[in-house]
Amino acid sequence: MARTPRISIVDDDSSVRESLRRLFRSLGFGVEAFSSAEDFLGSPRPSEETDCMILDVRMPGMSGFELHRRLLTSHPRVPVVFITAHGDEEQRSQALEAGAVDYLLKPFSEEALLNAVDTALSGSDVK
């Protein structure tokens, strides 16, 4: 039996973070939500247990891009979906070239996010 996929959400906007947490829980995913990259890195749950990351690009302290670079060295197999309210085409290109599954501009549709997460999990052992 496959285990339940675990999604980690890192976004400093509490309303976005909580709405995404509720959405993925309602769909049967395991979900952890963090208000910063530092909170994620300091959490007791190892990032090896994360099957997909949803990262805000712009956050106080460490950005989503910085967290992604850090994860690439220690956990290169964890797929990442970036979300942002302040994106541009150059950032999008950089994110995708760095291995992100998708780069979604807020407000994004639920369908777009779910498609991105489905793509992220499609190469995983949990699906």
Characteristics:
127 residues; alpha/beta; 5 helices; 19% strand
Notes on the structure:
By secondary structure, the chain is an alpha/beta fold. The protein is 39% helix and 19% strand. Strands 2-1-3-4-5 form a five-stranded parallel β-sheet, with helices on both faces. The chain has five helices and five strands. The chain is globular and about 35 Å long.
Secondary-structure topology with pairs:
Elements: E1 6-10, H1 14-26, E2 30-34, H2 37-41, E3 52-56, H3 64-74, E4 80-84, H4 89-97, E5 102-105, H5 110-121
Parallel strand pairs: 1-2, 1-3, 3-4, 4-5
Q: What's the N-to-C terminus distance? A: 10 Å
**Roughly what fraction of the amino acids lie in strands?**
15-25%
On the 0 to 100 scale, the average pLDDT is 91
Kindly report the spatial arrangement of strands forming the biggest sheet.
Answer: 2-1-3-4-5
Poorly predicted residue ranges: none
What structural class do helix, strand and pairing data support?
A: alpha/beta
The biggest beta sheet, please? 5 strands, parallel
DSSP E strands, number: 5
Helix content: 25-40%
Mass-distribution shape: globular
Number of helices: 5
Note the run of SSEs as H and E.
EHEHEHEHEH
Rounded Rg: 13 Å
